[in-house]
Amino acid sequence: MGISSKLLNEGERVLVSMRQHPKALFPAIFALIVLLAVGVAVQVLVDVAAVTLVVWILVALAICWWTLRPVLLWATAVHAVTDRRIITRWGIVTRRGHDIPLRRVSDISIEINLIDRPFGCGTLIITNASTDGNVHLHDIPRVEQTKLLIHNLVNDLPESAPRLDDGA
Predict the structure, then answer these.
(1) CB-based contacts of 42: which residues, under 8 Å, 6+ apart?
(2) What is the mean pLDDT of the chain?
(3) Membrane-crossing residues (predicted)?
(4) Is the pTM of this model over 0.85?
(5) What are phi and psi of 156, to 5 degrees?
(6) Quick one: DSSP state of residue 118?
(7) 3-state DSSP helix/strand/coil % of the chain, to nearest 5
(8) What is the pLDDT of residues 102-151, one digit of tens each?
């Protein structure tokens, strides 16, 4: 799922479209394994069919909440960098979004922890000049290249264009 062309202004181009690195699904996969292990353990150890049925119903509900929901959120979330702004969209039933015009970006930083390094992903932290403060985009693939792209776009804005961080 990429950014819909309906979201773009006339003449605006998508330079990078991405979703979170699949590493973000590790907790959901771990929850699935633990929940299935609990269900199987109860089925093997308990001879009462009603108890086993109740446990499997609870396991199914827990799988929906701790596995299916995070996977759907991951699948519906998308981040894009255009030549004018940074776009984020996410949500299963209710779609949410955040757009940051490049003119409002005052600082870009990254965080790459020990677990992120082998996967080549990290957190992109964008500080904008409005009252929103920092926007954290977690588990961004190729985070260093994305930071460099945004940095180059912000620095290549025409000087005649007003920027909030320049006091205009």
Answers:
(1) 51, 52, 55, 56
(2) 89
(3) 24-42, 48-68
(4) no
(5) -90, 0
(6) G
(7) 45, 25, 25
(8) 998 989 999 999 999 999 999 999 998 775 678 899 999 999 999 999 99
Cα separation of the two ends of the chain: 37
Position 102: which residue type?
L
pLDDT of 44 above 60: yes
What are the residues whose beta carbons fall under 8 Å from the beta carbon of 17, sequence distance 6 or more?
A: 2, 3, 78, 79, 80
Average the pLDDT over each of 38-52, 62-76, 153-167 and give the range with the smallest value. 153-167
- 101, 97, 99: which is closest to 76 by C-alpha? 97
